[in-house]
Each structure stands twice: as structure tokens, then as C-alpha cells.
Amino acid sequence: MKTNSSAKNKSTIHIPNELSDDLRPHYDVDYSKTRPNPYANRPKIYRGGARVGAGRKPAAQPMERHTITVHPSDAKFLRSLDANLSKAIRKLIAKAR
Fold first, then answer.
1. pLDDT, tens only, 35-76
2. HEC states along 55-85?
3. Domain ranges (residues) in the chain
4. Is 0.70 topped by the overall pTM?
5. Phi, psi (rounded to 5 degrees) for 74
6. Burial of 15: CB neighbours in 10 Å, binned 0-12, 13-18, 19+
7. DSSP of 11-64, one letter per residue?
8. pLDDT at position 54, please?
9. Range of lowest pLDDT (11-15, 21-25, 51-55, 62-66)
């Protein structure tokens, strides 16, 4: 069976030495053909950043960490008020005031 040599060479790309990634020692630039940058004098527009009013709101007063122990039946009652036990306790305290 005869193989086609052009099909064999399609997967291999030959890069001559003159087109390597290294910088050449000298470039000839014709500055008479250059144009000014049309975007140079435009004002800068900054996009992004935080939205006004975004983020967590500060608490009215700082919280303190305390550990309490409750009976399982009391925890069940508190969870019926709110799934978060801390919020449920705060609701009871607010109601008692």
C-alpha cells in the first residue's frame, strides 16, 4: 500500500529559525505611516465596585458570644419560633421587654 507523503506531513509544522519567538536585533519602523491614538484623550470611565447600600448592615449594638444549655423540649419549642436558635431567643427577649 502506498502512503501519501503530504498527508504524513500535515501533522508536523516546520518553523524556520528566522520566525522563532526570539526578538530580532533590529526592526525597521516607518513612523510616517503612524496615526495618533483615537482613544488617548477620552475620559476614563471606571466601572464596577460596590453598589450603594450593598453588604451586611451593621448591628444596632455589638453581639457577645455566650453558651447556654437548654433541655431538648425547650430547644424544640425555640425551633418552632425560628430555625435559628439565637434568633428565637432574641424574639423571646424582645417580646418580654
1. 999 888 888 877 777 778 888 888 888 888 999 999 999 999
2. CCCCCCCCCCCCCCCCCHHHHHHHHHHCCCH
3. 68-97
4. no
5. -70, -40
6. exposed
7. T-----GGGSSSPPS-----GGG----TTTTSPP----SPPTT-SPPPPSS---
8. 82
9. 11-15
Joined grid coordinates for residue 74? 425547650
Crossing angle, helix 85-96 and helix 72-81, to 10 degrees?
80
What gap in Å lies between CA 55 and CA 50, rounded to an integer? 8
Residues in the chain: 97
Say which residue the cell 519567538 belongs to: 21
39 HSE (CA, 13 A, CB side): 2
